[in-house]
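> call design_seq(struct)
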């Protein structure tokens, strides 16, 4: 006999709660690493190595999720700019809306932006540096004052 809808839902809820707990544990580990950096318990070279590891891991994660990268450098830099925009937002929210963001979110967004910079740089020799098809636009006619437009 099959499971009831309630039993299936309960099983799914338990699985989600387990996944949430695992993500919390991973987040706490990353926060602890960042705290140790702040407290200068690591030598500068160790800090650089840890940051490099985080960047390379993020590049791998992003490339696995999105293996295709634009050949047009303007589209590629738009992806980088989008991540930098998220970094800007995290910083602004940390300063002006601290209930929405904190220094750990800033770190996460900085790592993501850095990873996109690395992906951008990895394709410098593969970009098609040519002008796209363009078209002219007409200058909008302005109505004179008193005329209906």
């Amino acid at each position: 006999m099959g499971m009831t809808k309630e039993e299936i839902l309960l099983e799914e809820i338990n699985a989600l709660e387990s996944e949430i707990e695992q993500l919390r544990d991973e987040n706490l580990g990353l926060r602890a690493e960042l705290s140790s950096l702040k407290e200068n318990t690591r030598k500068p070279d160790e800090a650089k190595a840890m940051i490099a590891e985080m960047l390379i891991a993020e590049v791998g994660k992003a490339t696995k999720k999105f293996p295709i990268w634009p050949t047009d450098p303007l589209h590629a830099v738009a992806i980088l700019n989008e991540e930098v925009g998220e970094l800007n937002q995290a910083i602004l929210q940390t300063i002006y809306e601290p209930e929405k963001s904190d220094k750990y979110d800033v770190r996460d967004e900085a790592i993501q932006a850095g990873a996109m910079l690395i992906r951008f740089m990895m394709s410098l020799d593969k970009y098609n540096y040519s002008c796209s098809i363009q078209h002219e636009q007409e200058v909008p006619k302005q109505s004179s004052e008193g005329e209906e437009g």
